[in-house]
Write a structure and sequence with these properties.
By secondary structure, the protein is mostly helical. The chain contains eight helices and no strands.
């Protein structure tokens, strides 16, 4: 995971995607805005973009966040066709997730595959 300085420096240099930045600064309202304006046809491409520095996706950033908003952001991303991809270190978002975040991630990825997992979604 990059340091705050490295992340900010890369954001200034245009090497970090706006969606990743919105997640990193813990702004679910901005994430929702991005998802609304990109349109359904671009969800897969935008939500699954990997940054050039680490290869992290939006889901990686959401699991790093580990705040009360991270669960909201995971739900937003999974509803927008986010996929579990490996970064340059070969790690998935599950490798960085706390217990609560992992539970939300598992629950919402099940929803993507078509089944529902109401127990964990309701509790979180």
């Amino acid at each position: 995971m990059t340091t705050e300085f490295e992340f900010f420096d890369n954001a200034v240099r245009g090497k970090v995607f706006p969606l990743h930045y919105a997640i990193r600064v813990d702004a679910p309202e901005v994430v929702e805005f991005f998802l609304q304006i990109i349109g359904y046809n671009d969800y897969y491409t935008i939500v699954n973009q990997q940054d050039s520095l680490t290869g992290d996706t939006a889901l990686h950033y959401a699991t790093y966040l580990d705040s009360t908003n991270s669960i909201t952001i995971i739900q937003q991303l999974c509803g927008s066709e986010a996929k579990i991809l490996k970064n340059k270190e070969g790690k998935t978002p599950f490798d960085y997730a706390s217990a609560a975040t992992r539970r939300a991630l598992e629950c919402n990825m099940e929803g993507v595959r078509g089944s529902k997992c109401p127990k964990c979604c309701v509790i979180l």
